[in-house]
Design a protein that fits this description.
Structural class of chain A: alpha+beta
Number of domains of chain B: 2
Largest sheet of chain A: 3 strands, antiparallel
CATH topology of the largest domain in chain A: Immunoglobulin-like
Structural class of chain B: mainly alpha
Pfam families (chain B): DUF2391
Number of domains of chain A: 2
Shape of chain B: flat
Number of strands of chain B: 0
Helix content of chain B: over 70%
Radius of gyration of chain A: 28 Å
Shape of chain A: elongated
CATH superfamily of the largest domain in chain A: Lipoprotein YajI-like
Radius of gyration of chain B: 19 Å
CATH class of the largest domain in chain A: Mainly Beta
Order of helices and strands of chain A: HHEEEEEE
Number of helices of chain A: 2
Transmembrane segments (chain B): 20-38, 50-70, 82-103, 153-172, 187-211, 223-245, 257-278
Strand order of the largest sheet of chain A: 1-2-5
Distance between the termini of chain B: 21 Å
Distance between the termini of chain A: 49 Å
Oligomer: heterodimer
CATH architecture of the largest domain in chain A: Sandwich
Organism (chain B): Azospirillum argentinense
InterPro entries (chain B): CHP02587_IM, DUF2391
Strand content of chain B: under 5%
Keywords (chain B): Membrane, Plasmid, Transmembrane, Transmembrane helix
Largest interface: A-B, 41 and 49 residues
Chain lengths: 141, 279
C-alpha cells in the first residue's frame, strides 16, 4: 500500500498532471454537499421537531358536486412531534344537535409537520348544513 | 500493473465518466427492490430523525471501506477513496431522487424534511450499489486488490459486515421480519440460528476467504471460530442495529427481540458469507 502510493506520487511529479479530473471533483463535491445537506436537514429537524404526540386538525377546503352527491375536500395538518398512522376522520352534517349524515375517511399516514388531503362524500349538500369534522384517533406507525 | 494504467481511472475524464455511468446503473439495480418497497417510503418520513441522520453518517465510512476494497474504479490513496465514496453517495442520492420523483413518491408540494428523509434513506442502498457496480458490471482484473483483501483479517471482517448490512437492509424495513419472529417458537429460532451459522461456514469454505489457503494448517476449529462465528456475530450485531434504526424493536420483550434479531440475522449472515461474491 505504502509503496504504491509512493510510486503514484513520484509519477505524478514526473509528468506534472497530478490533478484529479474535473469531473471527479464535481461529483465528489456534489456528494459532499448532498451528504452534509441531508445530515444537516435531518439533524435540524430532529432538534426542532418536538417529541410530543401527533396534533392533527382537520379543515374543509372546498365543497363540490360529485354526480348526484357532494364531495367535501378536507385537509389534515399535523403540528405535533410524531407521525400518526391510520388516522380516522369523521364528518357529520348537523341539524341542531342531530347528525343527519356521517361519513368517514381513513388516512394511512399524517407525517409530523405535514399536510394530507382527502375527501368525504355526502348525499346532502354540506353547504346547507353545519359540517362538523372530528379527528377520531390514530395508531403509532 | 504499470503506473499510468493504474492512475488513468481517476485522473482521466472519459474513464471517470464511464465509471460514473456504471455506478448509476449499479445504484438502480441494487436499490430497485427497496425503491419499490412501501415501508421504505413511509420510514423515510416517520422514522426518528437522529437515527436516520446517524444511518447516513455510518454509510460514508462503509462506502470509504468498500472503495478501498472494491470501489467502482481503481484507487491508490485515501484521498482517491474519499472522492470515490462521495461520488458514489452523489450517484446514489441523485438516482434515488430521480426514481422516487418518477414514481410520484416524492412531490414538490411535500415538506422539505419529508422529501430529504425519503431520498436520504434510499440513497444508502443506492450508493452502496453504485460502489459495488464495478465488481458486478465492470472488468475484474484487479489481482493486486484481491491480494490486499486476503492479507488482512480486519479487512475480511469489514467485508462481511458490509455484506451483512447490504443484504440485511434489503429485508429489514419490511413488516415481515417482525411477523416471522411472532410466528416462531424458541425452537424455531434456535434451528434458524444453527442453520445460519452452518450456511455461513459452508460459504466460508467454498467461496474462499482470507486464510482459507491455510485452512489445512489452522484446522477446522480455528477457521470456524475466526470466520464463521465472528461473521455470524457481526451479522447479528448489524441486524440489531438495523432493527433499532427502523424502530422495529420498541416495546418488544427480550425473547421477541432475540427472535427478531435471529430472523434478520439469517439474510445478514448470508450477506456476510457471500460478501466475497458481491463485493
Amino acid at each position: 500500500m505504502a509503496d504504491i502510493r509512493e510510486n503514484d506520487i513520484t509519477s505524478r511529479d514526473e509528468d506534472g498532471s497530478a490533478s484529479v479530473s474535473r469531473l471527479a471533483w464535481i461529483s465528489s463535491g456534489l456528494g459532499l454537499l448532498l451528504f452534509l445537506g441531508s445530515v444537516g436537514v435531518l439533524g435540524y429537524e430532529g432538534i426542532t421537531r418536538g417529541s410530543g404526540p401527533p396534533a392533527i386538525t382537520a379543515v374543509v377546503e372546498e365543497v363540490v358536486p360529485a354526480g348526484p352527491r357532494w364531495l367535501a375536500h378536507i385537509r389534515l395538518t399535523n403540528d405535533g412531534g410524531k407521525t400518526g398512522a391510520k388516522v380516522q376522520v369523521e364528518g357529520q352534517l348537523m341539524a341542531g344537535d342531530e347528525a343527519l349524515e356521517t361519513s368517514v375517511a381513513e388516512f394511512d399516514y399524517v407525517p409530523a409537520g405535514s399536510e394530507q388531503k382527502g375527501g368525504l362524500f355526502f348525499d346532502r349538500d354540506p353547504r346547507a348544513h353545519a359540517l362538523r369534522l372530528r379527528v377520531l384517533g390514530y395508531v403509532e406507525p | 500493473m504499470d503506473i499510468t494504467r493504474q492512475r488513468s481511472f481517476l485522473h482521466d475524464e472519459a474513464q471517470f465518466a464511464r465509471a460514473l455511468a456504471r455506478a448509476s446503473a449499479g445504484a438502480i439495480i441494487f436499490a430497485l427492490p427497496l425503491l419499490m418497497t412501501m415501508e421504505m417510503w413511509e420510514l423515510g418520513f416517520y422514522m426518528d430523525r437522529f437515527r436516520l441522520a446517524l444511518f447516513i453518517l455510518v454509510t460514508l465510512p462503509v462506502l470509504f471501506g468498500l472503495s478501498y476494497f472494491a470501489g467502482f474504479e481503481e484507487t491508490f490513496c485515501w484521498q482517491d477513496d474519499l472522492i470515490d465514496a462521495l461520488s458514489a453517495f452523489a450517484v446514489g442520492f441523485l438516482m434515488s431522487a430521480a426514481l422516487l420523483t418518477v414514481f410520484a413518491i416524492v412531490r414538490l408540494d411535500q415538506p422539505l424534511p419529508e422529501i430529504i428523509g425519503k431520498i436520504a434513506l434510499q440513497s444508502v442502498p443506492a450508493s452502496i450499489g453504485a460502489m459495488l457496480a464495478r465488481k458486478q458490471l465492470g472488468q475484474q482484473d484487479d489481482a493486486d486488490r484481491e491480494r490486499r483483501i486476503r492479507s488482512s483479517y480486519p479487512g475480511e471482517l469489514f467485508l462481511m459486515g458490509a455484506g451483512a448490512l447490504f443484504v440485511g437492509f434489503n429485508v429489514a424495513p419490511t413488516e415481515e421480519m417482525i411477523l416471522i419472529s411472532y410466528k416462531m417458537s424458541p425452537w424455531h429460532a434456535v434451528a434458524l440460528a444453527v442453520l445460519s451459522l452452518g450456511l455461513l461456514h459452508v460459504f466460508v469454505y467454498t467461496v474462499g476467504f482470507a486464510g482459507q489457503e491455510s485452512a489445512g494448517d489452522d484446522g477446522f476449529l480455528s477457521v470456524f471460530l475466526r470466520f464463521s462465528v465472528a461473521g455470524y456475530g457481526i451479522a447479528l450485531l448489524i441486524s440489531l442495529y438495523l432493527l433499532w434504526t427502523f424502530e422495529r424493536i420498541a416495546g418488544l420483550s427480550m425473547m421477541e427481540l432475540v427472535t427478531a434479531t435471529v430472523v434478520l440475522g439469517f439474510p445478514s449472515a448470508l450477506g456476510a458469507a457471500t460478501a466475497r461474491l458481491i463485493v
